Amino acid sequence: QVQLVESGGGSVQAEGSLRLSCAASGRTFTNYAMAWFRQAAGKEREFVASINWNGGSTDYADSVKGRFTISRDNAKNTMYLQMNSLKPEDTAVYFCATAGGPLQSILAVDYNNWGQGTQVTVSS
Q1: Residue 9 near residue 21 (C-beta atoms within 8 A)
Q2: How many CA atoms within 13 Å lie on the side-chain side of 60?
Q3: What is the b/e burial string over 74-99, where b = at least 16 CB atoms within 10 angstroms of the residue's CB?
Q4: What distance in Å separates the CA atoms of residue 1 and residue 92, rounded to the nearest whole number?
Q5: How far apart are the C-alpha atoms of 78 and 6, rounded to whole Å?
Q6: Which of 72, 66, 122, 75 is nearest to 94 (CA)?
Q7: What local confidence, expressed as pLDDT, does residue 74 receive?
Q8: Phi, psi (5° rounding) for residue 5?
Q9: How far apart are CA 121 and CA 118, in angstroms?
Q10: The pLDDT value given to residue 2
Q11: Are 59 and 49 spatial neighbours (Cβ–Cβ below 8 Å)?
């Protein structure tokens, strides 16, 4: 089992930036793909970005392409989400998750470990 702890959330104005971190502990971090999902109030959890085991492949939701960048540092057991040009519609609780294997997916069911989430609020 791996434990995940997100940090870096907060409140910003539109067009601002935030960098989320996801620190992992427990089982070997490097063997697994990881992802960020988000859930806005009253809405279902949605895919944001994913990264494969070594960072060589990434995928993004259309709504964040060109604005968000996912990365990972396996030596530090940490994944990141750099969020630029934030919009009010990016407001949500952001969750990090690890997959069951090395390849990423956009489906939440393919991820079996989740953090508790960090709130991101973007005001207009």
Answers
A1: no
A2: 13
A3: eeebbbbbebeebeeebbbbbbbbbb
A4: 26
A5: 10
A6: 122
A7: 92
A8: -130, 120
A9: 10
A10: 84
A11: yes
